[in-house]
Amino acid sequence: MIKQLLLISGAILICVLIYTAPRTKQDSSVDQLEKIEVPTGIESVIMNAQAALIESDKEKLQELDSRLKSSDPRQQLIALDSITTFWDKRRVDIAAYYASQIADRDPSEKKYIDAAIRYFDAFRYAEDSLKKSQMVSSAIAYYEKALELNPSNLNVRTDLGVCYAEGTGAPMKGIQMLLGVVKEDPDHENAQMNLGFLSVKSGQYDKAIERFNTVLKINPLKSEVYLFKAQTEMRMGNTDEALISFEKFTEISNDQEMVREVKKYIKQIKNS
Questions:
Q1: Residue 134 confidence (pLDDT) above 70
Q2: Of 14, 136, 160, 220, which residue is 20 to 30 A from 145 by alpha carbon distance?
Q3: Would you say the pTM of this structure is higher than 0.85?
Q4: Are residues 66 and 82 in contact, defined by beta-carbon separation less than 8 angstroms?
Q5: Tally of CA atoms within 13 A in the half-sphere of 103 that contains its CB
Q6: What is the mean predicted confidence (pLDDT) over 220-237?
Q7: Which H or E run includes 137?
Q8: What is the C-alpha to C-alpha distance for residues 264 and 272, in angstroms, rounded to an integer?
Q9: Around Cβ 74, how many Cβ atoms within 10 Å?
Q10: 255 in any annotated domain
Q11: Which domain holds residue 239?
Q12: Which parts of 78-128 are beta strand (E)?
């Protein structure tokens, strides 16, 4: 149970990043918004997802879809935003598609990032290799668009590096991007964390521990890092060091359910 929880929380952390980048507005593109063209493939995905909705959700979506017929481009953008939010809670791949429609028609750094994040989440949840490839390719495309507008955004460069490292046949390209981020900003928490995850994945446990320790120096209260560090120590056979990290997690974490599970695991280790 605890191993599953640790792996799940690690998967969540690697793909959830917080962005505070300012919106770069380009008003000229808003007036070009006309009817929404749905490409082949996504149309059937949307239709199948709509058919599976409960009746009240179908009615809500129909009302939102009707707003897309407005002759006012800005009203269409508002409708697209509402539809994106609707699907966020149900199908992130469809939400990503609508977010990308917004970004294509009203380009800005923030909107490109919004689309890219959703595509990367869809990549993480996709079950077949073809869909994974499609989703990560779209994520990369929109992160690159965001970087064109703001090449200095280290959060985007970090996410783009993770996309390449996790979802393409060029993992070293992604790793080099992440290394470039920490060279420019050694205290970049997300880049250091993801380099730690990638070190674990490649079996470089010593390097992973170094990365996790760096994250803890940056943010000593980031409790979940103690779990990742402890799990890595366990893989190395360093039980005593792992116990120290597990116990530190129980002292500072606010996740009481997780704390209870970790305490059970600590007890199992000590009694084994």
A1: yes
A2: 14
A3: no
A4: no
A5: 29
A6: 96
A7: helix 129-149
A8: 12
A9: 12
A10: yes
A11: 222-271
A12: none
